[in-house]
Each structure stands twice: as C-alpha cells, then as structure tokens.
Design a protein that fits this description.
Blueprint lengths: L6 E2 L2 E5 L16 H13 L10
Antiparallel strand pairs: 1-2
Length: 54
C-alpha cells in the first residue's frame, strides 16, 4: 500500500510503502457449487488454486 508504511527516520511526515501478504485458507469440504465458485475466482485472477495445505 503506497505511503502507508512506517515513517522514514528523521522525516515524520514521509512514509514508505507497506507490503501486505494475504493468505486465504479454503476448507477441505466444499459443496459442488462452492468448489465451482472458488475455481471461477482463481480463473478470474489468473492464479491456480493450490491443492495442498501447510
């Protein structure tokens, strides 16, 4: 997020960019409709849905 990070040292009005990482966990058990919607969302964002969990 541009200019939403911590202030620059000795320049309290200047801020650096803040990088945010979002990790979304999807339940293992999904209905057919829920699974279809998750796959559609992945297609729209051009990302693959990971089948594994940490």
């Amino acid at each position: 997020m541009a200019k939403k990070g911590v202030p620059v040292l000795n320049k309290s009005k200047m801020r650096v960019d803040q990088l945010v990482r979002v990790q979304v966990e999807i339940p293992n058990k999904l209905s057919k409709e829920e699974k279809k919607l998750v796959e559609e969302l992945a297609d729209m964002s051009k990302n693959k849905v990971a089948n594994s969990r940490r």
